[in-house]
Each structure stands twice: as structure tokens, then as C-alpha cells.
Write a structure and sequence with these properties.
binds magnesium ion; binds guanosine-5'-diphosphate; Adenylosuccinate Synthetase, subunit A, domain 2; 20 strands; binds 6-O-phosphoryl inosine monophosphate
């Protein structure tokens, strides 16, 4: 299949980076289409751990072209640091292209992100404070600077002259300060623009030409479907379109160009940020899952909240994104639990609820209803290897039943089961 989309089906950190890197083996192009450096995608190759924030997870393969699409918001300082970090690790990177239409995160976006979060109180999302929301706000209100602007010194100066005093005044009205002068900001962004200019093009043209030639294009989602701006856990979500549709606008391709949509499902649920979390575990089991699963944010280092797998959430993702198949990650983290719970629906005011509600007040009041399954034992690496050789029929009974239950409930096949962070720790089912 020439084009595939990889999406996180929950609240992010499902293991999209690992699977993008894995599937990139057969790709010619790997394309990010939304978000910014709020993302943290981890790839483990042997002893080396790579944490990518902006650069697509195809970058570790020298024969793959990586594309930062128009739907992203780019902090050029972070991009430069990330590329320098990869060069230091002696990664043989493939070609990188950056969309001329992507928006640029400016220093004032980061200051505003922090100030607005503080003002919002309980309505805050617990953002990564990377300026993501304010930059997308400027995009929508047509007040933003795009990559094509910062590589053109006249346009940069013209737009910044308009934006700078407005943003400075807004920051001061919130009780903050913008520590950088107009002249310094202009000089810095002029430099960034000069540095990235050789990598800039109309990436929609590039991607569509590749598709027309029958090349394999892999689209890498960031965040998760439940962080989507329209369909996510508003207002605790992010500011971009994380669903399959976001791939069309954020990469500049037509819906009919998408051949396959793969959803990454963590075997339990995790969340970094605020807001209701129906299946959250605040007990010893939760602590154990968080510790064994090393559930700390890749971008901010914050401890992630964890809970049982919530199929109300994942079913919603199947519907919104037309998932063709699923990969399950972190099955190893659940080894050794006597029993496991999976949420199948909620009860609200005595009524069964099968769809994720829009209202946070209602979601808060939803009582998760669980199906209990038997667990499976701890497994040695030899035992996992045997499962790799034998496939589905070699899985321990509890794990096989867990997967069958998920498939039956979602109506989507599980294609791969991941049992560790490494590139080769996968079972093809
Ligand atoms: P992403 O944002 O979706 O790319 O996910 P993150 O990289 O933020 O978080 C996923 C974490 O789980 C990373 O540290 C991965 O290395 C790790 N990981 C991925 N798959 C597995 C797995 O099957 N088992 C275990 N134990 N860790 C995994
Ligand atoms: P990856 O791609 C998990 C969360 C933040 C916050 C909300 C809004 O690694 O899965 P933002 O900074 O985007 O304005 O924050 O979204 N969030 C993520 N949570 N993984 C991510 O990315 C996330 N990106 C944003 O914690 O609740
Ligand atoms: Mg992550």
C-alpha cells in the first residue's frame, strides 16, 4: 500500500515514534502533518535512545526523505537544536524538507502559553508551554508568520513590525513581560530563516509527486485522537487536527490518497495533562503500571497519569479515523497482573453511555463499566521470542484473550503486538 497514516488513538504517547520508525523501513517519505515540539516520539535502536520532537521519525533511516508538512507549528530554535543533536549522535540522516506554509512559533507565543495557562485555572490543559496554542491561534486569526515569511527578510520585518507591539501589549496586560526586543527578535529569526532556507519547498507538491510515482509515503501523527482540536477532550486538548482528516489539510493531499490508517493503542491508558480521566487508577495497580511502563512525559518529563484501557475512547477513534488496523504497545507492562479490567461503556445518570461525551461536566460524572479478564504471567525474553516465532497461537492464554476481546469490541484487527521499546520487539499476529 503506497500511503499509510499512523495515529495515536488515545491521549498521546502510545508509541507512534516506535512504529513510524519501524514502518519507515518500507517508506520513501515520512511526513509529519500537525503539532509541533509538544510531541515527544521515542525510538530505541539497540543501546541508543532517540527523542524526536519536530523531525519526523523517518530521519533515522538515511534512504528515507523526511517532510515537515504545512500543518505544523515550527519553533526554529528547537528544530536547529534537534538537527544538531542528531548530527552529534552521528545519525546518517536522510533528506529533510520543510513546508513553506508551516507556521512559526515566536518567542511571544511561548510567553503567552504560560500566562494564559495560569489565568485559566481549572480550564487549563496543562500544556507543554511550547507556544503551540497561541501559534495556532495566530494561524487561525491570520496573524501568524509562516516559514515563507521568515526566509524573506522584507516580509519578516514587515509582519513582525505589526505583530510585535500587539503581542507585547497583550503580554503586559496579562501581567507578564516580553524580554526580547524587536531588533533582537528580528535578527534571530532572520538568522533562522537563512539557515533553513535550503530545506524549504512546497511540500504538498513534493508529496503528491511521490504518490503519483507510486512511492511509499508514511504519515506520522503526533499527539492522539483524543487531543484533537475538534473531537478531543476540549479544553484540555491540543490545538491541531490529530485525526485522519488532519493528514489531508496538514500535508496537502486528497482523502483518496490515503490507503491505510493504522491506530496505535497502548494496552492501558495514559495521560499527561489535566481534565477528566474516567478509567484513571490512583491505587497500587496504577502506581505499578506507571513505574513498570516508565510513564514520564518525553517532552516535559512530567509523570503521566495511568488507567485501564478505555474502549469507549478507542471506539470513538475507530469511528473518527476509519482505522483499518491496530497495533498494541506495552503489553509487557501488564505482565504479572492477576486480572485486568477493560472499560466497555460508561453509566451516566443511570443510562448506558457508549460514546465519549462532549461536556467535561458529564465526562467527569461518567462511571466506567468494566469487563474483567484474567491476567498473564511475567515473561522472559525467550518466552517472548517463542511468541514471535509462533504468532497469535503462541501467546499466553490471558494475553490472547485480551487481544481477542479488544478486536471483537472494536471490530478492527490487531496487526502487531509490541512487547518492548526496541525495533525488533514485535509480534506479527
Ligand atoms: P509517542 O509519543 O506515541 O511516540 O510515544 P512516546 O515515545 O512519548 O512514549 C512511548 C514510550 O514507550 C517510549 O519510551 C517508548 O520507547 C516506549 N515503548 C514503545 N513501545 C513499547 C512497548 O511495547 N513496551 C515498552 N515497555 N515500552 C514501549
Ligand atoms: P506525543 O506526540 C501527550 C497534551 C498536553 C496538554 C495538551 C495541550 O508525544 O504523543 P499543548 O502543549 O499541545 O498545547 O498541550 O495536550 N499533549 C500531549 N500529551 N503526548 C503528546 O504528544 C502531547 N502533546 C500535547 O500535556 O494536556
Ligand atoms: Mg510522546
Amino acid at each position: 500500500m503506497p500511503s499509510k497514516v499512523i495515529l495515536g488513538t488515545q491521549w498521546g504517547d502510545e508509541g507512534k515514534g516506535k512504529f513510524t520508525d519501524l514502518l519507515a523501513e518500507e517508506a520513501d517519505l515520512v511526513v509529519r502533518f500537525q503539532g509541533g515540539n509538544n510531541a515527544g516520539h521515542t525510538i530505541v535502536i539497540g543501546e541508543k535512545v532517540f527523542k524526536l520532537h519536530l523531525v519526523p521519525s523517518g530521519i533515522l533511516r538515511s534512504d528515507v526523505t523526511s517532510v515537515i508538512g504545512n500543518g505544523l507549528v515550527i519553533d526554529p530554535e528547537i528544530l536547529a537544536k534537534e538537527l544538531a543533536g542528531l548530527a552529534e549522535l552521528e545519525v546518517q540522516m536522510g533528506q529533510l524538507w520543510i513546508s513553506d506554509r508551516a507556521h512559526v512559533i515566536m518567542p511571544y507565543h511561548k510567553v503567552i502559553d504560560g500566562l494564559e495557562e495560569e489565568k485559566k485555572g481549572k480550564l487549563a490543559a496543562g500544556t507543554t508551554r511550547r507556544g503551540i496554542g497561541p501559534c495556532y491561534s495566530d494561524k487561525m486569526s491570520r496573524f501568524g508568520l509562516r516559514i515563507c515569511d521568515i526566509i524573506d527578510s522584507e516580509e519578516l520585518e514587515h509582519k513582525l513590525r505589526v505583530a510585535y507591539p500587539v503581542k507585547k501589549a497583550y503580554i503586559e496586560s496579562l501581567g507578564g513581560t516580553l524580554d526580547i526586543t524587536f531588533e533582537d527578535m528580528l535578527a534571530n529569526y532572520y538568522e533562522y530563516g537563512k539557515r533553513i532556507k535550503p530545506f524549504v519547498c512546497d511540500t504538498s507538491v513534493l508529496i503528491n509527486e511521490a504518490l503519483a510515482q507510486g512511492q511509499n509515503v508514511l504519515f506520522e501523527g503526533a499527539q492522539g485522537i483524543h487531543l484533537d482540536i475538534d473531537h478531543g477532550i476540549y479544553p484540555h486538548n491540543t490545538s491541531s487536527a490529530t485525526i485522519t482528516g488532519g493528514c489531508c489539510t496538514g500535508a496537502g493531499i486528497a482523502p483518496k490518497q490515503i490507503n491505510k490508517v493504522i491506530g496505535v493503542v497502548k494496552a492501558y491508558t495514559s495521560r499527561v495533562g489535566t481534565g477528566p480521566f474516567p478509567t484513571e487508577l490512583s491505587d497500587d495497580v496504577g502506581e505499578r503500571i506507571g513505574t513498570v511502563g516508565k510513564e514520564f512525559g518525553t517532552t516535559t518529563g512530567r509523570q503521566r497519569r495511568v488507567g485501564w484501557l478505555d474502549l469507549v475512547m478507542v471506539r470513538y477513534s475507530v469511528r473518527l479515523c476509519g482505522l483499518d488496523s491496530i497495533v498494541i504497545t506495552k503489553a509487557d507492562v501488564l505482565c504479572g497482573l492477576e486480572e485486568l479490567k477493560v472499560c466497555t461503556h460508561y453509566v451516566l445518570d443511570g443510562k448506558d453511555i457508549h460514546d465519549f461525551p462532549a461536556s467535561m461536566r458529564k465526562l467527569e460524572a461518567c462511571e466506567p463499566q468494566y469487563h474483567t479478564l484474567e491476567g498473564w504471567p511475567e515473561m522472559s525474553s525467550e518466552e517472548w521470542k517463542k511468541c514471535q516465532e509462533g504468532g497469535r497461537s503462541a501467546l499466553p492464554q490471558g494475553l490472547a484473550a485480551y487481544i481477542t476481546f479488544i478486536e471483537a469490541n472494536l471490530g478492527v484487527p490487531v496487526e502487531i503486538l509490541s512487547f518492548g521499546p526496541g525495533r525488533d520487539e514485535n509480534i506479527y499476529l
